[in-house]
Write a structure and sequence with these properties.
single chain, 365 residues, alpha/beta, 11 helices, 33% helix, 18% strand
């Protein structure tokens, strides 16, 4: 009987020993494709690292990142926490009405202030005496639609207030009321292009443009199957893939997208050539510093959009009313270089940023 009492302890230490051996002898990945991040590297054992305490903290991160069957354990933990224990969240994620949501809980006021400093530099350098009409619109984070359901998420009104403080020289266009959780992908942070016609119409009308093309064009929805967004892997919830759509038809078929990085025309949508690990990058070339959409069917006039990734899906719709639409991402191009490519003279300028980026704006130059 005594032997049987020892079995649990023997099994535990056997599993621990097996896991440790497997950890050190198995090949190591450098990147987690599901989480879309680099995995921790094994720290070097030096007296300096040990004395500072960095060695052990980095070793702990390395062990956590490379533990055998780590993905299975992450999925099991998420399932147990959300489905069995009925927790509201697991690792900052929750599932609400079939949609995976990363909970943005607090407004980072310092981040909004930093972005405001970047925007002020743009104003002084290009906009102060340009004659341009300047507007701002803040894209709500998915989690903001869970506030009324009792989830601990940041106050959208406070976010709008902070954004206004970052861009006091721009006219506010509030797009929050026209959006809902269903306008975003189930497994991703981004919004769905086919659900943005009303948002684009509101923006165009506020900027004094005719939006009738959007309401009269018979757009076609082209499906791209098996889309799994960034939240699918980060949450470890193992959701079913969904369908991503992009719009074609009417003036969109006549538009051309020019990439200033390659100085060439590229596809407006590129489901084959985009990063297949992130199909959302099929919109407007993905992460690009400076692009121009030319619409030969639109009246004369230009729109300059300072944007993050959300602008890639919306810009083709705004191009319905402009001969040229410029997409500027100052995470990838220094603002001082813009004068070589753009003329800020009597044009419309839209600052279109998401709450997600504004709450973590350190990448803006």
């Amino acid at each position: 009987m005594k032997r049987f009492r020892l079995l649990p302890a023997v099994a535990f230490f056997g599993a621990l020993l097996f896991g440790s051996i497997t950890l050190f002898v198995s090949p190591k990945e450098t990147r987690s494709e599901t989480e879309r991040r680099l995995l921790a590297e094994k720290p070097g054992f030096t007296s300096e690292n040990v004395m500072s305490g960095q060695y052990f903290s980095r070793l702990e991160q390395w062990l956590a990142d490379h533990f055998p069957k780590r993905e299975r354990l992450r999925q099991a933990r998420a399932t147990f926490g959300l489905d069995i224990l009925r927790k509201h969240e697991c690792n900052g994620f929750t599932e609400y009405r079939g949609s995976i949501v990363s909970l943005l809980k607090h407004a980072n006021e310092a981040s909004f202030a930093y972005a405001g400093e970047r925007f002020e530099r743009l104003r002084k350098k290009y906009l102060e005496r340009s004659g341009c009409s300047v507007y701002r619109a803040l894209v709500p984070d998915k989690s903001s639609f869970l506030r009324d359901a009792g989830y601990p998420v940041a106050d959208g009104a406070r976010m709008e207030e902070l954004y206004s403080g970052s861009l006091p020289f721009a006219t506010q266009v509030s797009i929050r009321e026209g959006l809902a959780l269903s306008d975003y992908y189930r497994t991703d942070s981004h919004w769905r292009q086919e659900r943005l016609l009303d948002t684009a119409e509101l923006l165009l009308k506020t900027m004094g443009k005719d939006a009738s093309v959007l309401t009269t064009t018979d757009f076609s929805k082209v499906p791209v199957e098996h889309f799994l967004g960034v939240y699918a892997g980060q949450s470890a919830m193992n959701p079913e893939p969904e369908t991503l759509y992009y719009l074609t038809g009417g003036y969109l078929d006549e538009c051309r997208l020019f990439d200033y990085e390659t100085m060439s025309v590229i596809p407006m949508y590129d489901p084959e050539g985009c990063d297949t690990r992130d199909l959302y990058t099929l919109f407007a070339g993905g992460s690009k510093s400076l692009l121009r959409i030319d619409n030969p069917k639109a009246p004369e006039g230009a729109l300059i959009i300072f944007r993050d990734s959300f602008g890639a899906a919306l810009a083709p719709l705004l191009a319905s009313a402009y001969r040229s639409v410029y997409l500027v991402d100052i995470r990838y191009i220094h603002p001082d270089a813009l004068g070589r490519f753009l003329k800020f003279t009597d044009q419309d300028v839209l600052f279109l940023y998401s709450e997600t980026l504004m709450n973590n704006s350190q990448g803006l130059r």
